[in-house]
Recover the amino acids of this structure.
């Protein structure tokens, strides 16, 4: 049987209201009675209803982490960084998945209004554009921080990576390896990170003397099988693509599948570089050159900022942390491509 | 400014208690007044404090999913299965990570007592043994269902795979491919699935005529780097190990790393089969033969059982669903090994 205030009151021969007030440390109850009630409650291992406590204290000791998915290595690493910080603060982390659906994300945020959590860390789904009413609304009600994927139009703190610069470098890397026909596999949706990575690619291609670089953008789908077909068509085209920049991990996996299925040799026929935090990138056939985001550090930084806002009621709205990504060279971009010229 | 009951009362020139009762659909308030208050509350987009509502209805529309990690593909797939069912029921899924720590798991479960969620789906961490006080306690308070990893001593529903049988088959598979010195990489901890997989291995090895099969168990660590060293020592041993059964995905990754680092050719020198749901197992060098658990279906089954318990107050304690795993043959166990004899 679970221990209730009623049981404590009956056992101690007191009124329910007296026990209730004592447990809330009310001045109406004498110290002696309070001690008697608290000792007995502790003995019975009484657990207060957390929601009742929340009404009083207005803190829940919960933070919400809202992410598109956990199958992507970036998000699972970032969550580990967030958890490390939250645990040290005695907070519980509740993870919510949007599955890249705008509707789902709005419903989750709507539900987070009104006291369920103390703060929110969010990486928005591809379905969310640059602006969103519910995101703007929530920011006025509790601390909310974007990490990696943000709504441009919503004014609050954000922890990002240097997407433009690292995409520029990734493209340059392929050029330096002798690639002449490079395509960019773009993820669906209108996220700022997608746009930044695309812009970095276009700039690098333009700087290397390619005319109309925008013709080298390949728009992929949220659906893996559809992306597979789109990538297959792009790589089997008569243009003889010899370099691929994958803007997200799941597109890199589809690009590898296409090359495996149609025996397009990596790196001899096609070189591939991908934004990915896949731990086993080095075990793939061939090992994959990656642009690695500092996922764990980003999670840590976002959580640290959130607790700063919670503790000191700091205005964090203007905070903007940018952490650099790193290129990790492996076999998928090996060689100079000199034999192909 | 956020809308409160007080504001609604002031605007409509009513008592706060009247508004509060109307919003809780009390019989003390006339239908006409109720309609007037509800219409106005809707117009102002009034959001009830979810915790206040919870005190009254005693339902939260939340379920908790407690898992060791999300970096393992099994868990991320199982979560997707759970979410599919929960979403259809209008429930929110809150994911909690234990990071294989008993202490952390106990703290999370303690926090889930007393009304924060309506039910719990849990895959216990390696640190939790066959029995646990807090798990037993929680089962008496709200519906709790184990999936994949269970406490043997705790009586409640569970959704499992045929760990003994599939480990037996995995071992037989290596024997049929000509392996003569097979080891089993065992995960740390005393979980039932760990034990079942080990027993299946021992039985298969015994049936194939190996004496003292228990000498072929290699105990690994929770720490990746330590496991790497343990596996290296086992594979470089003078016994000339030629077959490896990996009991969990993370050990398979370390086994691959060892073979890559010390150029032990897979499958010619060593054949590897692993319990893993890794989607890209087919893209590894070489592609990896896996025992694939029906992760998504297990998540779906566990969630379906939970909602059955919630809706009909069914006693699900005795339910035990076992879904079969499948062996997916790839290059890491290719060949007959005939040249080695």
């Amino acid at each position: 049987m679970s221990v209730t205030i009623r049981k404590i009151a009956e056992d101690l021969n007191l009124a329910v209201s007296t026990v209730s007030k004592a447990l809330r440390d009310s001045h109406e109850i004498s110290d002696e009675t309070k001690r008697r009630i608290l000792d007995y409650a502790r003995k019975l291992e009484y657990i207060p209803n957390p929601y009742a406590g929340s009404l009083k204290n207005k803190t829940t000791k919960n933070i919400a982490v809202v992410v598109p998915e956990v199958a992507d290595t970036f998000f699972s690493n970032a969550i580990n960084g967030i958890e490390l910080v939250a645990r040290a603060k005695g907070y519980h982390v509740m993870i919510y998945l949007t599955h890249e659906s705008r509707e789902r994300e709005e419903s989750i945020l709507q539900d987070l209004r009104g006291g369920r959590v103390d703060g929110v860390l969010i990486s928005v789904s591809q379905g969310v554009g640059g602006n969103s009413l519910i995101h703007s609304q929530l920011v006025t009600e509790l601390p909310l921080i974007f990490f990696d994927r943000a709504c441009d139009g919503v004014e609050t703190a954000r922890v990002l990576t240097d997407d433009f610069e690292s995409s520029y470098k990734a493209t340059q890397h392929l050029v330096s390896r002798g690639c002449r026909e490079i395509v960019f596999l773009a993820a669906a949706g209108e996220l700022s990170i997608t746009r930044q990575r695309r812009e970095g690619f276009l700039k690098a291609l333009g700087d290397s003397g390619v005319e109309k670089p925008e013709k080298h953008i390949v728009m992929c789908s949220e659906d893996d099988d559809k992306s597979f077909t789109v990538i297959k068509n792009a790589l089997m085209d008569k243009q003889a693509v010899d370099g691929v920049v994958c803007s997200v991990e799941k597109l890199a996996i589809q690009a590898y599948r296409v090359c495996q299925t149609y025996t397009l040799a990596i790196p001899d026929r096609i070189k591939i570089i991908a934004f990915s935090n896949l731990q086993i990138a080095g075990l793939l056939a061939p090992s994959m050159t990656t642009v690695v985001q500092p996922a764990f550090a980003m999670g840590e930084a976002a959580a640290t900022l959130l607790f700063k806002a919670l503790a000191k009621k700091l205005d964090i709205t203007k905070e903007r942390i940018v952490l650099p990504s790193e290129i990790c060279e492996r076999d998928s971009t090996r060689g100079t491509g000199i034999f192909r010229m």
Q: What stands out?
A: Confidence is low (pLDDT under 50) at residues 50-56, 337-341 of chain A.
